[in-house]
Each structure stands twice: as C-alpha cells, then as structure tokens.
Amino acid sequence: MFPERAEAMHRICFDMEPSESDLGLLGSRDRWLVYRDLVRSRLTHIVAAALPRTKNAIGEHAFGRAVDEWLSTGGPKTRYLRHVPAELATFAIPVWRGTEAPWVADLASYELAAWNVRHAPRDPSSVAEFAFDRKPVITTAIEVLRLTHPVHDAPTPALGYERGPVWLCVYRDATHQPITTKLNAIAADLLDAWQRADRTVAQSVEQVAAAHETGIGPAFVEKLATLIADFIDRRIILGGQSPPRDPGQNA
Questions:
Q1: Do residues 144 and 191 touch, judged by C-beta distance below 8 A?
Q2: pLDDT tens readout for residues 15-39
Q3: What is the number of other CB atoms lying within 10 angstroms of the CB of residue 117?
Q4: What span, in angstroms and rounded, lies between the C-alpha atoms of 155 and 196?
C-alpha cells in the first residue's frame, strides 16, 4: 500500500492537474492541495532566482508554463535545490531555442552558468606553481560558454539580440559573485583543455593551435603570455599539478 500512496503523493505534486482519485486515496484533500502549491511555489522560486532575466524576457506567464510543463514530466530528479534550475534548463532550453526568440535559450544558458559558478565547490587549498611542463589547475567555479547572441550585455533589449558568435568565461570572484569575461575561440578551447587537465600546458597549447591552424610564433606567444597572466590574476588559473612523487625519494 505504501508505494501506491507514495506514487499518488508524487503525482499530486507534479502532474499538470492533480487527480481526484489520488486525492481521495490520500484523504485530507484540501491539505494536499495546499501542500502541492507549497512544493511547486518553492521550486518555481528557486528557478526564477536562477533565471531572473529569462523570466522577465519571456514574461511571467510563459515562464510559469515552462516550469509547469517540466514538472509534469515527473518533477526534479535531484535532492538538492541548487541543482533544480539545471534540470528545468535542460528541459526548457531546447524548446526556447526553437521559438521566434532563440536568444532566450542563450540567455537561460548564461544565467544558469552564473548560478552554477556561484554554487560551485571550493577551489583546492594547495597547488603547485604554474608551469608550462605541468598540467594546469583551474578554478572549480568556472564555465566556458559558446553562444550565438551577446546575452551577457544587459539590460535585455526590447527586440532581443542580433545573432553572432560569442565566447564567454563565467567565473567566481573572491566575494563569490559570478564575473563574465569575453574570450575568443582559441582562448575558449584553451580553457576547455586546461579544465580537462589531461595534458601539460605546453601540450594543450600545441593541440589547440594545431586545431585552429595557427602557428606558434612570437605574436601568438605574446598573446598567450598576456592571456595566462590575466587568468592567473583573476584566479582562473590557480597553478599547476604537483609532479608525481619519485618512489625512490624516501628510500
């Protein structure tokens, strides 16, 4: 009997409309309707807190409908409220991308990145010094975005945004606030490679330069040095991985 009641509770909270049979099974009809409203209001509040500009851009009614449609697919799969906006975005962004205002999908992706960065885990407390022959250590609070509209520019214009390639880095500053800096295609690919940290800095630079058919000459090296210095200053790059310990050191 308990699984049947649990399933009824779930449907009452997340179906587009609660069924009278489920309400009759659980009893206390009015109390369960109040509970449904409380659950849905809490989830809607969290999503709206993460995507305020998106909500404003499409309007409260359309935003609420998107949340309702997402909830009707079964509700959140996560136990953590901070992960709820990502689940809504996974459902809604493809829908918004196919509308007459596809930039809304980019705006939601951008706001979600800022939300994720704000709630990302702490950075490692101790790392080795940055070096080109070491694998890099990047802040945990970072997202690299490849968008087709400059949605980081605020406020949202009445007619939306013109289409064009945009590369962004969203990271967290010392006060736990998300900060956005613009990139180019090579810098975005470098950050992706450095986040994976499966190669040394030098190896990843060679790989990315080759992919972009860019020679590593003096001009490239000068721009790379400026980029790395900026990332270190912003604490996007924290340092390098310590080299593996030689087993014979303690012999």
A1: yes
A2: 888 878 778 777 788 888 988 899 9
A3: 23
A4: 34
Mean pLDDT, the chain, rounded, equals: 92
What are the tens digits of pLDDT across the range 184-208? Answer: 999 999 999 999 999 999 999 999 9
Q: How far apart are CA 246 and CA 235, in angstroms?
A: 29
Cα–Cα distance for residue pair 93/110, rounded to 1 Å: 11
Q: What are phi and psi of 145, to 5 degrees?
A: -115, 140
* 130, two tokens: 């940055």
CA–CA dist 104, 111 (Å, integer): 10
What predicted TM-score, i.e. pTM, was given to this entire model? 0.90
Alpha-carbon distance of 150 to 100, in angstroms, equals 17
Which residues, including other chains, have CB under 8 Å from residue 83's CB and lie 6 or more apart?
A: 76
At 108-157, the pLDDT tens digits run 999 999 999 999 999 988 899 999 999 999 999 999 999 999 999 988 88
Q: Regarding beta strands 142-147 and 136-138, do their DSSP bridges make them parallel or antiparallel, or are they unpaired?
A: unpaired
Hunting for tokens 């992960």 — which residue is that? 83
Structure-token pair, residue 79: 């136990």
